[in-house]
Every structure is written in C-alpha cells, then in structure tokens.
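Title: Prediction job returns without error message
Component: structure pipeline
Severity: low
Priority: P3
Assignee: unassigned

Description:
Job completed but the reporter wants confirmation the result is attached to the right record. Sequence as submitted:
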Amino acid sequence: MSDTSNTTTGGQAAGQQPNIVIAPECQDIFVDGVIGAMVRDGVVRINLVNTRFNIDGSQVEHAVVSRMIMSRSGVRNLHAALEQLMGRLTRSADGRRDDDTAEDES
C-alpha cells in the first residue's frame, strides 16, 4: 500500500494532497467480501467476511472476520475512493489490467 492518496478527504482544499502516514499498529486484513451492513444513530456498521468450510468440511460458511464502523461521511468518502478504484480496474488502455501494475495508487 502506498503512503499517499489521490482522494480528497474532509477539510482538504481541492487539489491539495492530505498528509497521510501509516501508523505502526496498522494491520492489513484480507476479506472475501461484505455481508450485512446497517445504519444506527448515524453510524454505519459493515461486516467483512471470509468464505471457508465449516469445521467438518461439509458446508461453506461466511465467517465475519472484522467489522468496519464509520460515520456517514466516512462511508461517502469510501464510496468515492472505491469508484475511482473501479475505474482503474476496468480500464485497459494497453491490454493489461491496472491491478497488474507495480504502483499502488490507493
């Protein structure tokens, strides 16, 4: 993951890059997807899941491995960032996928 972002966050003037640092306690997590989200008292809660076999291997289950809890404005910022990312993932100017490039723009 890169230490900078192309998105504008709250309080930043348009065109001005926010100062972003990665905290030492920051952890990367892998998730297969999202299942279930709710809004209560202006707070959005999103369940992040991994797909796996149950303990005896007979069925596939979705295990909630983390929850993302954000303000409504944080979710709007996340949505804008994901829209930009989807644009990069679907472009194919030179025949290769954008996610194959070494540079991480997120």
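Comment from assignee: result matches the submitted record. Residues 72-90 form the longest helix (19 residues).
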